[in-house]
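stage 2 :: seqdesign
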């Protein structure tokens, strides 16, 4: 499948035309190649952010595009193709998540709050310390964030991931999750508050 971790920011705002969907429904191989190139990184990154397992994320990415090939005829155009693929990916992630939890398998979540106040606080917190302490604290904070994300209810984790890691608007997240914008905002607020509570010991060290 090749490297799937390339940044998708330049493509995130792409709105596919009706012609691509029509070609997909006609089983146009070139259209599937085009859709794969447009969205493979987006789907991989979402899956990896939620599960922190590269192999699982690659498997889910393949499953999502197999689903696109097999079930694109069910796509009715009520949302964008990107939104539909996000939904398929999160359904796959949710299934894997339940499977793992039934077997009490420990997981870690990769968290990178790009451009958020929490990330800036983490950078400020770490930069004021001597190099050895800074490296140690960086590991501690990252571990706390991973554990915090893992403890969040799936709905909150998905909303926080889509907002803080993928930069989706509240309306876009609403479309992906199929809930009202107010519900999206509530889930994100509760998720962020839970993470802030976990990080309080680091802020209280007097370095921020």
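stage 2 :: out
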């Amino acid at each position: 499948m090749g490297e799937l971790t390339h940044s998708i920011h330049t493509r995130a705002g792409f709105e596919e035309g009706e012609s691509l969907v029509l070609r997909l429904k006609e089983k146009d191989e070139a259209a599937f190649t085009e859709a794969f190139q447009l969205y493979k990184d987006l789907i991989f990154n979402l899956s990896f952010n939620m599960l922190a397992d590269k192999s699982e994320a690659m498997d889910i990415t393949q499953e999502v595009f197999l689903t696109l090939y097999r079930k694109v005829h069910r796509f009715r155009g009520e949302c964008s193709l990107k939104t539909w693929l996000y939904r398929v990916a999160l359904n796959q992630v949710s299934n894997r998540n339940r499977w793992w939890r039934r077997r009490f398998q420990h997981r870690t979540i990769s968290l990178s709050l790009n451009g958020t106040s929490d990330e800036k606080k983490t950078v400020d917190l770490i930069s004021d310390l001597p190099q050895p302490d800074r490296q140690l604290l960086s590991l501690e904070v990252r571990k706390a964030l991973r554990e915090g994300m893992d403890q969040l209810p799936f709905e909150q984790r998905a909303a926080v991931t889509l907002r803080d890691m993928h930069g989706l608007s509240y309306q876009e997240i609403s479309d992906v999750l199929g809930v009202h914008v107010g519900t999206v905002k509530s889930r994100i607020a509760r998720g962020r508050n839970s993470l802030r509570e976990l990080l309080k010991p680091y802020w209280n060290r007097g370095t921020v």
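stage 3 :: structure notes
- Residues 117-203 form a domain with the Arc Repressor Mutant, subunit A fold (CATH 1.10.10.10).
- The two ends are 43 Å apart (CA to CA).
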